[in-house]
From TrEMBL:
<keyword id="KW-0539">Nucleus</keyword>
<dbReference type="GO" id="GO:0001682">
    <property type="term" value="P:tRNA 5'-leader removal"/>
</dbReference>
<feature type="compositionally biased region" description="Polar residues">
    <location>
        <begin position="23"/>
        <end position="36"/>
    </location>
</feature>
<feature type="compositionally biased region" description="Basic and acidic residues">
    <location>
        <begin position="57"/>
        <end position="68"/>
    </location>
</feature>
<dbReference type="GO" id="GO:0000172">
    <property type="term" value="C:ribonuclease MRP complex"/>
</dbReference>
<feature type="region of interest" description="Disordered">
    <location>
        <begin position="56"/>
        <end position="77"/>
    </location>
</feature>
<dbReference type="Pfam" id="PF12328">
    <property type="entry name" value="Rpp20"/>
</dbReference>
<protein>
    <submittedName>
        <fullName>Uncharacterized protein</fullName>
    </submittedName>
</protein>
<feature type="region of interest" description="Disordered">
    <location>
        <begin position="1"/>
        <end position="36"/>
    </location>
</feature>
<dbReference type="GO" id="GO:0005655">
    <property type="term" value="C:nucleolar ribonuclease P complex"/>
</dbReference>
<dbReference type="InterPro" id="IPR036882">
    <property type="entry name" value="Alba-like_dom_sf"/>
</dbReference>
<dbReference type="GO" id="GO:0003676">
    <property type="term" value="F:nucleic acid binding"/>
</dbReference>
<dbReference type="InterPro" id="IPR014612">
    <property type="entry name" value="Pop7/Rpp20"/>
</dbReference>
<keyword id="KW-0819">tRNA processing</keyword>
């Protein structure tokens, strides 16, 4: 009995429960997580219709850039002379509009020069023609005419001519400025998906105008 009691009592070891083994991820499983995450992201992105989102954004931008997009496409007809009503433009048999000749860049002979300023023509072109005219012997007056957004360009041209032109005394450069309002016309093509050829709309609006006269007096 004594010998039997002296032996140590050993408790057999038991394996950990299955739940504990599953909570500790292995290195192989952790290495697969980024790949599975990327695969999940790709699946989610494939479900989103990205081309439609981009096209709708482009359409909204084009609608903003298009002039007068609420009513339709606007074609500017230019200044109207007094007592002139807006008339539809002539159309050929094929449907193309007949556009009349545009106003020339300048009018007048050797006695004077009138430059109609437009933002479509470079600033340097007007400046060279103005300086070449005033440097002629017995040059007539130089007149800048502009309206709308080209008014600031006409004022800058007058200042540039004065700074670049060197006049010997007793000659002086005189300046005259006059402002006003002109009536311009527009041709509007309404936006219509049901009508193939919608009826054109003609409208008038007012624009600010300016005339600057430069002349050399002795």
């Amino acid at each position: 009995m004594a010998g039997a009691s002296s032996k140590p009592h050993l408790i057999p070891s038991q394996p950990p429960p299955p739940a504990e083994r599953s909570t500790a991820p292995s290195k192989q499983e952790t290495s697969k997580n980024p790949a599975e995450l990327q695969q999940t992201i790709d699946q989610l992105l494939s479900q989103v219709n990205l081309p439609e989102i981009r096209s709708s954004a482009v359409d909204r931008k084009q609608d903003v850039d298009r002039p007068n997009n609420k009513r339709g496409t606007v074609r500017k007809l230019g200044q109207l002379v007094p007592n002139q009503a807006i008339q539809p433009t002539s159309v050929t048999v094929s449907g193309h509009r007949l556009v009349g000749p545009r106003n020339p860049l300048s009018t007048g002979g050797e006695q004077g020069l009138v430059l109609t300023v437009s933002r479509k023509t470079p600033f340097s072109v007007y400046l060279k023609r103005a300086l070449a005219h005033l440097r002629k012997p017995k040059a007539g007056p130089l007149i800048f005419r502009a309206m709308g957004c080209a008014v600031s360009m006409a004022l800058s041209l007058a200042l540039a001519v004065e700074s670049h032109l060197q006049i010997a005394r007793p000659a002086i450069l005189t300046k005259e400025l006059s402002t006003g309002t002109v009536v311009v016309g527009d041709e509007v093509v309404p936006r219509s998906e049901s009508v193939v050829e919608p009826e054109l709309i003609y409208q008038t609006r007012n624009q600010a105008s300016i005339e600057i006269k430069l002349s050399i007096k002795i």
